[in-house]
Amino acid sequence: MHLNPYGEDVVNLAADLANRRPADAGELADRCRAAGLVLELPVTPKDLDRTRAALDAWEKVVDAADEDERAELLNRMLAAAAAYPRLTKHTGTDWHLHYRDDRQPLGSLLFTLIAVGTALHLAGRGMHRLRRCAVTECTMIFADTSRTGRQRYCSQRCANRDAVRRHRAQATR
């Protein structure tokens, strides 16, 4: 099985943006550049609004009750972001596929990347590999990129916290 890193990178960016929403267009641009996106146009407040809408739709995908609902919600995002795939080579990269139109404003670009990247990630790794942390009081979203596909926690800290809680609960029995 070939795992598509394009999907993994994008779902990790989506999770990062959803878990800590950018406060303004400048922060959005900085975080996207840090994630490796090439920004062709200036980033505006409209891009921030479009990104927020994309993240709202994406969080519904994350929180879907089952695989069918998740697929339906993601298909809606894909339909709204429809563009034909194209081969491209830019900024010193090798040839690769883009699933978006050229020179899109960042908000539209992120909507498309998040929709397509999430679809690639889930189709390639499994529909269950996008979720919130299993620790009740933690609401962090993560993409499960583990080898086994059984990741339950957003971080080692949350995994340790839950293990301590389970251990203490056993000790009091």
Automatic annotation (TrEMBL):
Source organism, top-level taxon: Bacteria
Q: Which residues form the Zinc finger CGNR domain?
A: 129-170
Is Ion transport there in the keyword field?
A: no
The family database entries (InterPro entries) matched by this protein are listed as:
ABATE, ABATE_dom_sf, Znf_CGNR
Where does the sequence pass through the membrane? 105-123
> Keyword Transmembrane helix, does the record have it?
yes
Q: Name one Pfam family in it.
A: zf-CGNR
Keyword list (alphabetical) reads:
Membrane, Transmembrane, Transmembrane helix
List where this protein forms a coiled coil: none
Q: What is this protein called?
A: CGNR zinc finger domain-containing protein
